[in-house]
Design a protein that fits this description.
heterotrimer; A alpha+beta (356); B alpha+beta (356); C alpha+beta (319); A: 356 residues; alpha+beta; 5-stranded mixed beta sheet; 12 strands; C: 319 residues; 4-stranded antiparallel beta sheet; 9 strands; 27% helix; 24% strand; mRNA 3'-UTR AU-rich region binding (chain A); cytoplasm (chain A); Ribosomal_Su5_D2-typ_SF (chain A)
Chain lengths: 356, 356, 319
C-alpha cells in the first residue's frame, strides 16, 4: 500500500532524481544521505496511559503513542490442555525438555503475538483503510518479531499483560509515516511502566497501587532480580523500523516527501537491539514498499506500444520511473547500512536511548 | 549530529522584539480612535478577537475581518488578528490565514486537474484557481486564437502536477482566482526545486508582497546564476537561470538577436511547454539546495521571506559554511536546527545594519 | 439474547472430538520433512480455468507429507490451493481521477474453509496485508502506461491454506489458524499464480515474476539450516523466513518480505549469525525453480489457444 502519489511535475522529478543519483548525492535540503532531520520529542505526557510519547518530525508530521496495559487471563488454557496431554502421552520428550528450558529462561513463559495490539489512527482515513491496516500490521510485526517484548508480558502461568499500543497521527500523512510511528512507539514503550505485583507466583495477580513502585517495561539496565540469565551488556530496547530508499546507487535515510517520490526502491527495515554486544543489530524484518514513483504521471511518458520501456532515466533531463525491481546488490547494501555496527540503526537507537 | 532529538521548545515569549519590518499599522496617525468602553486603551499593535467590539464610532468604515450589526453602529471583529487602519477604513489582519488571491499577484501554482478548456490550479488558496486555455501563450505565437485542436492537446501544455508561474488576472465573486500566463515572464517552471511556505495573509514567517518577486542570484562557489520566484501565495520556485528570460527553450540561443514577434513565436513554439530539464551542474545544484535551505530556515525562524531577507540569509549561510567546517560539524550543508537559527540571526542582523 | 426457536448447543463452545490414535506414537509424531533442503514441493499450475474472467490461473502445492499418516484425523497434512482471476483492463469509473496508466488493485481472500478453523467472509488484517504485498510484487512488472485510464483487479481466493503448526502439535492457542510463517508461503504462491493469470489476461509485462520462500529452520541435532519452500508444519521451529518476488531475466527483486523471530536465540546464538543475504539468495533459488513451472504452464495454455484459434480463424493460422 503506497501513500497517495505525490503530485510533482516531471521536471521537478527529473531534477530531484538526477541530484540524488550524483556522487556524492545532493539532497534537496543538502543533508548527507544518512543524516536525520532534527526531531522534537517528549515522553510520559499522557497521565492515563502506562507509557506515552509524542514525536515531531521536521516536516511537521507529528504523532502521539499511548501504551495501555491490561491484565488478562491466558487464553485457551482450557482448550489447549488436551493437546498438552496428548503431547505428553505421545512421549513428546523433546517438547517437554524445551518447555523446561524456556521456563528456566526467565522463570516465566513465552509470550504470544496477540498479546500486543497495535492500532493506528490517521486523520481523514477510515480505520479499515489499507494504509492504516498496513502500518499497524508492520509495527506489530516488528514488535512481535523481537521475542523480548512478548516475554515481558508474562505475569505467571495463568495471567499475562495485554498491551494496547494506540498511535495517533496528528498531521495529515505527507510522507510515508512508518518511521515516525515506529520511533514514537519505541519512545512510548521505553517510558512504559507496569505496576509491581505483590502476589506470589501463580496466584491471581494483585498489584501495588503505588505508581512509584512500578517497574519499567524496559529497565534501563536489564537485570532481573530473580534472573539466572547473565546480565546483558546492552539494555534491551524495543525494535525500530527505518525507512530506507535508494536512488541509483545511493541509499538515503529519513527521506522527505519529495525524495520518496523519486525513489527507485523503498524498504522498511526493522532492527532490534543486539542480544550480545559488537555483533551489530538484529535484523528482525524487512519488507519492500511500493515506491510511489511508479504511480506518478511521469512514469507514463511513453504510451505507444513498442516504445522503449526501460531506457534508464530516459533522455537527459527527463526522468521516468524505472520498471522492475531492485538489484540484490542494492538491497544488501540498504540492509547492511541499517544493521552494521556503527551504522544508522545503532545511531538511531543510541539517540533514542539517550533521550528517554 | 546525524540524529538528534530535542525536547519541545518552550513557547516563545509573548513580546519578543520583532524587527520593525511589519507594515505600519496606523497610516493615519493623527486620528485617534476613541477607546471602546468595554476595553482598556489599546496600544497601536492591538490584538482583537472575534466578537470583540472594535469601535462604536460611526465615522469608521468596516474592512476585511470585521462585521457590523444592523441595529448598532458598532464594528466588531470577525477574526483574531491585528488591527489595521487605513484612513477611515478599519480592517483586521488575521494572525494566520490562507492566501486570498488579489488581482495582479504573481503566484506559483500547481495544476491539479485538467478540464476540457481550462486547468484547475492549486495556489494554496481556499479555492482552486482557473487557468483558461485562452489565457496562455499558445504555440505558434501569442496572437493566435485558441482552436479545437488546442483543446484536444490541452494536456501537452500542462498536465497534472505541473508547476507554473502566473499572474492573477481577475478574482471571481466567490474568491476563486483566474490566472493568465500571457507574458514571457510566466509559464511552465523547469530546472529547479519547489518549496511551499505560508504565504501572504499569515502572520509569522512567509512570503510577503514586495516590489520584486522574481530575481536572479549570482551564487557563490561557482554555482552560476539562479532564479528565485517567490509566489505571493507562499509557493516558491528556485531554479537554474537559463538564457535571458525565465521561460525559454531552445530559442535561448537566439536570445541576442532581439525580441521580435517572430522570434517570440519561435520560442513559444519550441520550448514553452517542454518538460525536459537543461543540464544542470553539480555546483548549481548545491547552491539551489542552499538557497532553499535558507528559505526554510527563515520560515522556521518566523521571518518574512522577500528578496532582501533571502539574500542576507544566503550570504550568511555562505559565510557560515567556513565556520561550520572548522567546528567539524557533520551533516553537510544542512541548514536545519542550530545552524539554521544561526543563519537567520545573522541575516536579521545584516538587515538591521543595512537599515541604520 | 439466545434464540429460543432452536435447540442451541452448550454455551462456551465444545472441543472437537479427538480420536486417540491406536497407531504407535511414531506415526503421529509431528510431520517431518522428507524432502531435501533444496527440494521444492511439486507445483501444479494451470491457466485459463475461469472463462468469464479475462485471465485466470489455479495453483496447487502438494501436501508435504505423503498421505500415509492421514489415518489419523489430526495429522492430515495441509496443502496450498489458490485460484486467481484477473478482471480487466477495464475503464475506470467516471468518478475516478485521470490516470495515465493501468491501476492495479489486488485482493486476497481466504475461503471460509481454507483452514481448520472456519473464518467468516469479513476481510481481516492479514488478508489486506497480503494483498498489499502482492500489489508491490506485481506493480513493478506491469507496463502500465500501455493501458491508460484503465484498471485491473487481481482477485485471489485461498481455497486451502497452510497452517503454522500441525494440528497435533498445538503449542499455543494459535494452532489451526493460518498466520505467521504460513502466510509467507501463501504469498509466494499468490505471486506466482497472479503472474500466470495476468499473462493469461494478455497484459504487458516486462518479465515473469515468481515467488519463492526460504527459511532458516531449527534442527534437532544439526545447526540451523536454510530450507527452500518450507512447510511450517514440517518443521519444529522456524527462525527466519524470506519471501521474494523475483524477475529472473533482469535479476531484480520486486517484493521482499523477511521476518525473523529471535525468541529462541538465547539458547542458540547461532541463529543470529545467520546472514541475511544467503537467505535471500536461497529464496531466489526457489523463485527460479517456480519460474520453470510458470513458463511451462503458460506455454501449454498458449499452445492450446493457438490451436483452437487456428481452427476457428483460418486467417490467423497463416501468421
Amino acid at each position: 500500500m503506497a501513500p497517495p502519489p505525490t503530485p510533482l511535475s516531471p521536471s521537478e522529478l527529473s531534477y530531484l532524481h538526477t541530484s540524488l543519483s550524483l556522487h556524492p548525492p545532493i539532497r534537496p535540503d543538502a543533508r548527507s544521505p544518512t543524516s536525520f532531520r532534527p526531531l522534537v520529542a517528549e515522553t510520559d505526557l499522557l497521565p492515563a496511559a502506562n507509557g506515552s510519547a509524542r514525536l515531531c518530525f521536521a516536516d511537521g508530521t507529528e504523532a502521539i503513542a499511548g501504551v495501555k496495559a491490561e491484565v488478562e487471563k491466558v487464553q485457551g488454557l482450557g482448550n489447549v490442555r488436551w493437546y498438552d496431554n496428548m503431547d505428553a502421552e505421545m512421549g513428546g520428550i523433546e517438547e517437554s525438555e524445551r518447555d523446561g528450558e524456556q521456563e528456566g529462561e526467565r522463570g516465566k513463559g513465552v509470550g504470544e503475538d496477540k498479546w500486543i495490539e497495535v492500532t493506528v489512527d490517521m486523520p481523514g482515513q477510515r480505520d479499515d483503510d489499507a494504509m492504516v491496516v498496513f502500518l499497524a500490521q508492520m509495527i506489530h510485526e516488528g514488535l512481535v518479531a523481537d521475542g523480548g517484548l512478548k516475554n515481558r508480558l508474562v505475569i505467571n502461568a495463568r495471567w499475562h499483560w495485554r498491551l494496547y499500543i494506540d498511535i495517533l497521527l496528528l498531521s495529515p500523512p505527507h510522507t510515508y509515516p512508518l518511521p515516525l510511528l515506529s520511533l514514537t512507539t519505541h519512545l512510548a514503550l521505553l517510558s512504559t511502566r507496569l505496576p509491581a505485583p505483590i502476589s506470589n507466583h501463580d496466584e491471581d495477580p494483585l498489584f501495588n497501587d503505588d505508581w512509584d513502585a512500578s517497574s519499567p517495561l524496559y529497565p534501563s539496565s536489564d537485570t532481573y532480580p530473580d534472573a539466572k540469565t547473565p546480565p546483558q551488556s546492552s539494555p534491551a530496547r524495543p525494535p525500530i523500523t527505518l525507512l530506507v530508499i535508494s536512488v541509483g546507487d545511493n541509499v538515503f535515510f529519513d527521506a522527505s516527501r519529495e525524495e520518496l517520490a523519486v525513489a527507485d526502491a523503498v524498504l522498511a527495515v526493522t532492527v532490534g537491539a543486539p542480544s550480545s554486544p559488537s555483533t551489530g543489530l538484529n535484523l528482525l524484518a524487512v519488507r519492500t514498499i511500493d515506491p510511489p514513483s511508479r504511480l506518478s504521471a511521469s512514469a507514463a511518458e511513453v504510451g505507444r506500444a513498442g516504445a522503449e520501456i526501460d531506457a534508464e532515466g530516459g533522455k537527459e533531463g527527463v526522468w521516468k520511473a524505472s520498471k522492475g525491481g531492485m538489484k540484490r546488490r542494492v538491497l544488501a547494501r540498504m540492509v547492511q547500512m541499517c544493521v552494521e555496527g556503527g551504522g544508522v540503526g545503532e545511531e538511531v537507537l543510541g539517540g533514542l536511548g539517550e533521550f528517554s | 549530529m546525524p540524529f538528534t532529538i530535542t525536547l519541545p521548545a518552550p513557547l516563545s515569549p509573548l513580546h519578543h522584539n520583532e524587527p520593525s519590518d511589519s507594515p505600519s499599522l496606523d497610516s493615519d496617525g493623527d486620528t485617534d480612535m476613541p477607546p471602546p468602553s468595554k476595553r482598556p486603551k489599546l496600544s497601536t499593535r492591538s490584538i482583537v478577537t472575534p466578537g470583540e467590539t472594535v469601535t462604536d464610532d460611526p465615522q469608521w468604515m468596516r474592512g476585511h475581518g470585521t462585521y457590523t450589526h444592523p441595529t448598532s453602529p458598532q464594528i466588531l471583529s470577525s477574526v483574531a488578528g491585528t488591527l489595521l487602519k487605513t484612513n477611515k477604513l478599519l480592517s483586521i489582519r488575521p494572525l494566520r490565514a490562507r492566501y486570498t488571491p488579489e488581482i495582479g499577484d504573481l503566484v506559483v501554482g500547481r495544476v491539479v486537474e485538467v478540464q476540457t478548456k481550462r486547468w484547475k490550479v492549486d495556489l494554496s488558496a481556499p479555492l482552486l484557481a482557473h487557468l483558461p486555455l485562452s489565457a496562455i501563450n499558445l504555440p505558434g505565437g501569442i496572437l493566435r486564437k485558441r482552436t479545437s485542436t488546442d483543446e484536444l492537446a490541452i494536456r501537452t501544455f500542462f498536465g497534472e502536477g505541473d508547476l507554473l508561474v502566473a499572474e492573477v488576472q481577475s478574482v471571481y465573486q466567490d474568491g476563486a482566482a483566474s490566472l493568465h500566463t500571457r507574458s514571457l515572464k510566466y509559464g511552465k517552471l523547469r530546472n529547479g526545486v519547489f518549496l511551499s511556505v505560508s504565504g501572504t495573509g499569515g502572520g509569522g514567517g512567509g512570503v510577503v508582497r514586495s516590489r520584486r518577486q522574481v530575481w536572479t542570484v549570482q551564487t557563490a562557489n561557482g554555482g552560476g546564476e539562479v532564479d528565485v520566484v517567490l509566489g505571493v501565495n507562499g509557493y516558491i520556485w528556485i531554479c537554474k537561470h537559463v538564457g535571458g528570460e525565465l521561460v525559454e527553450g531552445k530559442g535561448g540561443r537566439h536570445a541576442g538577436a532581439g525580441m521580435g514577434v517572430n522570434n517570440l513565436e519561435e520560442k513559444v513554439g519550441e520550448g514553452m511547454y517542454e518538460n525536459r530539464n537543461e543540464s544542470i551542474g553539480e555546483e548549481t545544484r548545491w547552491e539551489i539546495a542552499r538557497l532553499s535551505g535558507c528559505v526554510r530556515a527563515l520560515v522556521e525562524g518566523g521571518c518574512r521571506v522577500d528578496e532582501e531577507m533571502v539574500m542576507r540569509a544566503y550570504e550568511a549561510s555562505v559565510e557560515d559554511e567556513g565556520v561550520g567546517g572548522e567546528e567539524g560539524e557533520e551533516g553537510g550543508e544542512y541548514l536545519g536546527g542550530e545552524r539554521g537559527r544561526r543563519v537567520v540571526r545573522e541575516a536579521l542582523r545584516a538587515v538591521h545594519a543595512a537599515r541604520e | 439474547m439466545t434464540d429460543r426457536r432452536r435447540i442451541n448447543g452448550p454455551l462456551g463452545g465444545t472441543a472437537p472430538p479427538v480420536f486417540v490414535s491406536s497407531l504407535t506414537s511414531k506415526t503421529t509424531s509431528p510431520a517431518k520433512r522428507t524432502r531435501a533442503p533444496d527440494e521444492l514441493r511439486k507445483i501444479f499450475l494451470k491457466t485459463g480455468l475461469t472463462p468469464s474472467a479475462s485471465g485466470s490461473a489455479y495453483f496447487e502445492l502438494e501436501p508435504s507429507t505423503p498421505t500415509a499418516a492421514s489415518e489419523c484425523l489430526a495429522s492430515k497434512a495441509p496443502a496450498l490451493k489458490l485460484t486467481c482471476t484477473v478482471h480487466g483492463p477495464r475503464p475506470l469509473p467516471r468518478s475516478a481521477p485521470f490516470s495515465p496508466q493501468l491501476l492495479l488493485s489486488t485482493r486476497i481472500k481466504f475461503a471460509p474453509f481454507a483452514a481448520r478453523q472456519r473464518r467468516g467472509y469479513i476481510p481481516n488484517v492479514g488478508e489486506r496485508d497480503l494483498a498489499a504485498h502482492l500489489e508491490t510484487a506485481l506493480r513493478g512488472v506491469l507496463i502500465g502506461e500501455r493501458w491508460p485510464k484503465s484498471g485491473i483487479d487481481v482477485v485471489i481466493t485461498v481455497l486451502e491454506g497452510e497452517e503454522d503448526n500441525s494440528w497435533n502439535k498445538g503449542q499455543s492457542g494459535e494452532s489451526g489458524r493460518t498466520g505467521g510463517w504460513g502466510m509467507m508461503s501463501i504469498l509466494s504462491g499468490c505471486i506466482t499464480v497472479a503472474s500466470a493469470a495476468i499473462i493469461d489476461a494478455g497484459i504487458d509485462c516486462i518479465d515473469l515474476v515468481t515467488g519463492g520462500v526460504a527459511a532458516v529452520v531449527r534442527q534437532p541435532t544439526a545447526p540451523p539450516q536454510v530450507f527452500l519452500d518450507p512447510c511450517p508444519s514440517d518443521h519444529e521451529e522456524i527462525f527466519a523466513a524470506c519471501v521474494i518476488g523475483y524477475l529472473q531475466t533482469r535479476d531484480e527483486i520486486t517484493e521482499l518480505w523477511t521476518k525473523r523471530s529471535i525468541m529462541a536465540s538465547t539458547d542458540d546464538n547461532r541463529a543470529n549469525t545467520m546472514e541475511f543475504e544467503p537467505l535471500v539468495d536461497q529464496a531466489v533459488e526457489a523463485a527460479v525453480a517456480a519460474r520453470l513451472v510458470l513458463i511451462e504452464a503458460i506455454k501449454e495454455s498458449t499452445e492450446v489457444k493457438v490451436q483452437t484459434s487456428q481452427f476457428g480463424h483460418p486467417k490467423n493460422a497463416a501468421s
